[in-house]
Automatic annotation (TrEMBL), chains A, B:
<dbReference type="Pfam" id="PF13305">
    <property type="entry name" value="TetR_C_33"/>
</dbReference>
<dbReference type="InterPro" id="IPR025996">
    <property type="entry name" value="MT1864/Rv1816-like_C"/>
</dbReference>
<keyword id="KW-0804">Transcription</keyword>
<feature type="domain" description="HTH tetR-type">
    <location>
        <begin position="20"/>
        <end position="80"/>
    </location>
</feature>
<dbReference type="InterPro" id="IPR036271">
    <property type="entry name" value="Tet_transcr_reg_TetR-rel_C_sf"/>
</dbReference>
<protein>
    <submittedName>
        <fullName>TetR/AcrR family transcriptional regulator</fullName>
    </submittedName>
</protein>
<dbReference type="GO" id="GO:0000976">
    <property type="term" value="F:transcription cis-regulatory region binding"/>
</dbReference>
<feature type="DNA-binding region" description="H-T-H motif">
    <location>
        <begin position="43"/>
        <end position="62"/>
    </location>
</feature>
<dbReference type="Pfam" id="PF00440">
    <property type="entry name" value="TetR_N"/>
</dbReference>
<keyword id="KW-0805">Transcription regulation</keyword>
<dbReference type="InterPro" id="IPR001647">
    <property type="entry name" value="HTH_TetR"/>
</dbReference>
<dbReference type="InterPro" id="IPR050109">
    <property type="entry name" value="HTH-type_TetR-like_transc_reg"/>
</dbReference>
<dbReference type="InterPro" id="IPR009057">
    <property type="entry name" value="Homeodomain-like_sf"/>
</dbReference>
<dbReference type="GO" id="GO:0003700">
    <property type="term" value="F:DNA-binding transcription factor activity"/>
</dbReference>
<keyword id="KW-0238">DNA-binding</keyword>
Length: 220, 220
DNA sequence: TTTGCATGTTACTCCAATTAACATTGAGCA
DNA sequence: TGCTCAATGTTAATTGGAGTAACATGCAAA
């Protein structure tokens, strides 16, 4: 029996009693299951199986299923932040194109990972999560904010409204993503393209900003 | 025993074998539970109890819990539509104020019923629901569209872009609602008011529309 | 080495969804 | 009238999955 410990067969090559990185393995497993099943309604034991452990093991790392989902949520926000950074880096800093690129990246991420979207914006029981730390969820926003701030200065304008503008731009991308993902664009405006809609909306909005007086209620 | 059928006590006054309107009673019960518990994660049997029937009775009206949730979803969209209508009716038809009022109504509904929001925008397994019929979910949008169309004509402009504009305005209100509800506005722009943000965003955007050339990529 | 704590395991318990089999009622028809 | 059926309810399972208890393993520090 105990010999087996040393004479490891091919199939059980990686089977040590202690996983080594179970916490992260479970997060990945859960994320994958969510992608596959199209909802966060997977069985804990399936995540455990994927990670190659028993059904009770996950509870050493996560208080309950919600805690695991929260970790996946954090992971999703983190990934989104990286995406935003990559998008912005490809364009001229402070350009309208950079702002649009970030927005398009947002849409691409959201529509490409609809299950994560549900996790991030859907479940009210996880809504609390957004509070405590979320460096992860913040990073993406700060990329946008920097870009908007640079744009403000570039058009010869104070950047005092940059924060409010960023929120508004975020809201546009976020709103269009959600509406698109739920098929409402296809329904009401068949043939329209979300990315094109984002682009025109952004242009129109920024045009409106240019024509507005600073401090005239823009940055409430 | 059978005498009891006629000698009905006060406490069992309303207890007939057949409920009479169980389907709707269950929808209301479920909606109430969702409001109370703050999530759609209520027990089927609780909804049944509220409606005064046994745990299995709901399955005569709904294939499964998801089907019941779908019905609640429809109900929520319907309510939202009524809300939009009421908001628009209070303002001058085709005015910017009317557009803003609808947006504010949207935000009020969403932030006032966060659980419904989850139902409408969160769960991917219910996303399909939006497809088949949804007269309910449409009505609110058409109220907005009519208003926008009137606005276009009022500013001496073709209303060819009204549909696209409506989608964009919806997206703004929707995006701001979601972001606000998840505490991101408090986080990034403490002290800001969603309603004020919606108002300024709408003004800025419509200003941008006025300054844009019709057909210049606005209505993609 | 030995011991302690983190991490896993197996074997429950419990809860809630769903189903099966049977009961009650009302509506339409002989 | 009174019978019969379809719709709607009821009770009593079955099932699946979350979470827990008690025990096992192994790494790491003394």
């Amino acid at each position: 029996m105990n010999r087996e410990r040393h004479v490891v067969s091919k199939t059980e090559k990686n089977k040590r009693y202690h996983h080594g990185d179970l916490r992260n393995a479970l997060i990945i497993a859960a994320a994958t299951l969510i992608e596959e099943r199209g909802s966060e309604d997977f069985a804990m034991i399936d995540a455990a199986r994927r990670a190659g452990v028993s059904s009770a093991a996950p509870y050493r790392h996560f208080k309950d299923k919600t805690a695991l989902l929260e970790a996946v949520l954090e992971f999703a926000f983190f990934t989104l932040g990286l995406e935003a950074e990559a998008c912005a880096a490809k364009e001229e800093q402070g350009s309208v194109d950079a702002i649009i690129a970030i927005g398009k990246g947002y849409i691409r991420f959201v529509t490409g990972h609809p299950q994560f979207y549900s996790l991030m914006w859907g479940d009210s029981s996880l809504r609390q999560v957004a509070k405590p730390d979320h460096n992860a969820s913040s990073s993406g926003f700060y990329v946008l904010e920097d870009t908007v701030r640079a744009w403000c200065l570039k058009i010869g304008r104070s950047d005092e409204d940059a924060l409010a503008l960023s929120i508004k731009l975020w809201a546009m991308a976020h709103g269009l993503s959600g509406i698109a993902m739920h098929g409402h664009i296809d329904r009401f405006l068949p043939g329209a393209d979300v990315y094109a809609l984002l682009e025109s909306t952004t242009h129109t909005f920024l045009e409106g900003v240019k024509h507005s007086k600073p401090g005239s209620g823009l940055a409430l």
